[in-house]
C-alpha cells in the first residue's frame, strides 16, 4: 500500500470544518439507552454513533454484549437522529450481520488486529465493500502489525479506510489504561499522511479526568477525528463505566478544544509549529518518565549497597558508563560536551537518591 489522497475520500465526503467525531456508549445495553444517547448527541459536532454489540472481554464473565438485536436499535437511532452508525466486528459472522443491518462504519478492535488470520478472514468477508472500515491499533506496540491489518483490507479492495489510536497495553501500571506511545501513530502518519487517523482517548485514559488533554494533543498532532465513549448515565454503564462521559460533557469538550485549521500561509506555519511542539512535549514527557525510572533503579542499588555496606561512589563503573555514553551519543549526533554535562547531572541525582536511601 502507498499513500494516496483517495484514502481520505470517505472522510472528505463529510465536508466538516472540524475533526470527525464518533461518539456513543462502550456497549449497546437496551434500545432505550441507545436511542437516548443518540438523541443527546444529535445536533452537535458528532456525525457517527458508536456502540459495541459484541464485546471482546479480556477476562470471561464480564458483559459480552447484546448481540445482533442491538444492531436494530442502532438502525432505530439512525432513523430518528440521522447519525451514521458504527460498531466493532471481530469475525466474519459479525461482518455479515453488520452489513445486513446496514451499519455505516465497521471497526476492527485492538484484540483482533493482533491476529493476521482473523484480520484476513474479516477482509475476505468484507471484500469490495464501500463501507468504511477503521482499524484500531493492536494491543501491543507494533506498527507493522497495525499497518499489516490495513494492508490486508486494502488488498481486499476496501478503499474507505482509517485507523484508530487507542493506546498500547503495558505490564507496568501507569496513569493510563493503555499507554499512548504517540511515536507509533506519528510514524504511521508520516508514512501515510492521507490515511485518516482517529484518536480513541477513552481506552487510552481508562478514566475521565485526562480525556480532554488527550483530545487536545491529538488535534495538535493533526489527527482527523475522535472516537469518545459517551453514555447518558456513565456511572451505571454495563462496561467501561469509569471512562465514559455524558454527551453534555463531550459537547463541552468540542466547544473548548482548539482546532487548528490550515487555511492561510501563516496559519499553516502556526499549525506546523504547533504540531512540532506537541511532538516535543511528548518527547519531554518520555524523558522525564525515563529519568524517574532510572532513579528508582538507583534507589534499589542504594538499598543493595546499604545491605552490604558498600560505598556509594564506584569510580570505575562511572567512568565506564560515561565513556560508553559519549561514544553512543556521538553516533547519534550529540556533542561530547552535552553528553558529559547531561550524565554528570544524572549521576549526581543518582548519588543523591542513593544517599537518601542509605541514610534512611
Ligand atoms: C471498544 O471500543 O469498546 C473496544 C473494545 O475497544 P478496543 O478494541 O480498543 O479495546
Ligand atoms: Mn469500551
UniProtKB/TrEMBL annotation:
The chain positions of domain Chorismate mutase read 267-358
Family matches, as PANTHER family: PHOSPHO-2-DEHYDRO-3-DEOXYHEPTONATE ALDOLASE, PROTEIN AROA(G)
Quote the Gene3D superfamilies the UniProt record gives. Aldolase class I (3.20.20.70), Chorismate mutase (1.20.59.10)
So which domain of life are we looking at?
Bacteria
Q: Which InterPro entries has this protein been placed in?
A: Aldolase_TIM, Chorismate_II_sf, Class-I_DAHP_synthase, CM_dom_sf, CM_II_prokaryot, DAHP1/KDSA
What Pfam family does this protein match (any one)? CM_2
Q: Which GO terms describe its biological process?
A: chorismate metabolic process
Gene Ontology molecular-function annotations: chorismate mutase activity; transferase activity
Give the organism, scientific name. Antarcticibacterium arcticum
- What is the protein's name according to its record? chorismate mutase
Transferase is among the record's keywords: yes
Q: Could you say which EC number(s) this protein's record lists?
A: 5.4.99.5
- Report keywords, A-Z: Transferase
